[in-house]
Amino acid sequence: MEPVTFGLVGVGGYATVYLRILRALENEGLARISAVVIRSPEKYPKEVEYFRSRATTIYRSYDDMIDAERGRIDIVALPTAIHQHKEMTIKALMSGFNVIVEKPPAVTIQDLDEMIEAEKKSGKFCVVGFQLQSKTVVQGIKETICEGKVGDVKYVLAKGKWKRLDSYYERNAWAGKFMHEGKYVLDGTVSNPLSHYLMSSLFFASMERGRAAYPIRVRAELYRGHRIEGEDTSCLDAEVDSGAHVLFFATLCSPSESRPSQRIIGTKGTIDWTFGNNAYIKYADGSVEVIKEDGKDERMELFRNTIRYLRGLDENINCTLELTRPFVLTLNGAYESAKRIKQIPDKFIVRQAEGGSMATIILGIDDIIDRAFEQKLLFSDLGVEWAYKTDYFPLKNYKCFSLTP
């Protein structure tokens, strides 16, 4: 198979992941990095040396690469800042390139709809970096649901308990921001680091292949423990068009790091899955079935799926722009319902030096999330002292997010 040619935007930050994947695929003869954008070559001498040794064209700006490489590369890869996704994706599509854009593709429904419209007009495709959709065990769970083996899905639950130091928010100018450079970022557990599990939950909530369930209404609570503009702790309940409820519980203020987990509750059985492990289906008759974790790198598989789709070997893209529309609607509904991001009072917070930075820990947060997950309740419903009550926000005909911080 002729290698698929890529134009990579950036080599620092999260772009290092894309670069690692593309170099591995180059070694397999499946891909070739034909062009790369490095705005500050002096900061990346090793990368510059690598690209020069392979006759890869290095550009100092995105616009220069897009203008010069028309008709010469197949896919533009965008591991770029959240608030840049829309404009960069649309420019690439309308210039005749296919695109891989990092998640979230956009954080407002109006921006995502513009991207979807541009994709349709361009005749090209855009893949979104929600890599869980390319994970074999996730595909296996979805197929089990679509086959009706667990009956009608009533609940899909997800929980994630991570720790992020102050250094995480100091890594770039937009981290932890509600807005940056006049554009929405909405950086937080719902939109960014743990968003994969909200996306896959909506995917599991639909019993139709290749589809995620659309939210009808959302109730959410958004909090911050860190001294940031955005949220780092959240819970939400999305009632979706399949009749199920999607519940999501997340924090970046845990005392330790643990693997996110999900539970799908149907009328005939329950599926439990913790990232990195097998998924277990427990049927009403007491029998158990296992969906095996194959150990493959889901980020690598996302790129493989894109390459295979371009070459006509895969019938479908695992995560399209259209597939993410329910996710962006749920994200917007969460902010509309919450109305504000509440700072958790200092008496419930511990800040301590760690790893050359500072850790922010919400006292008892792991237990709170575990109880919320098991009882299918939001934090305020549990009677958590620092939590606040919110109302459901309806999303019928919702077309524009316009909240201010």
- Poorly predicted runs of 5 or more residues: none
CATH class label of the largest domain: Alpha Beta
The overall pLDDT average reads 98
Shape: globular
CATH fold node name of the largest domain: Dihydrodipicolinate Reductase, domain 2
* Number of DSSP E strands: 20
By DSSP (H or I, 4+ residues per run), the number of helices equals 11
Strand fraction equals 25-35%
CATH superfamily of the largest domain: Dihydrodipicolinate Reductase, domain 2
Describe the structure.
This protein is α/β, with parallel strands linked by helices and 405 residues long. The protein folds into two domains: 128 residues, NAD(P)-binding Rossmann-like Domain (Rossmann fold); 235 residues, 2-Layer Sandwich (Dihydrodipicolinate Reductase, domain 2), CATH 3.30.360. The chain is built from eleven helices and 20 strands. Strands 7, 10, 11, 12, 13, 14, 15, 16, 17 and 20 form a ten-stranded mixed beta sheet that branches. A six-stranded parallel beta sheet has the order 3-2-1-4-5-6, with helices on both faces. Helix 1 links the parallel strand 1 and strand 2. It is globular and about 60 Å long. The relative contact order is 0.15. The mean pLDDT is 98.
Task: Give a quick rundown of the structure.
The longest helix is centred in the first third of the chain and has 14 residues, at 109-122. The protein contains 11 helices and 20 strands.
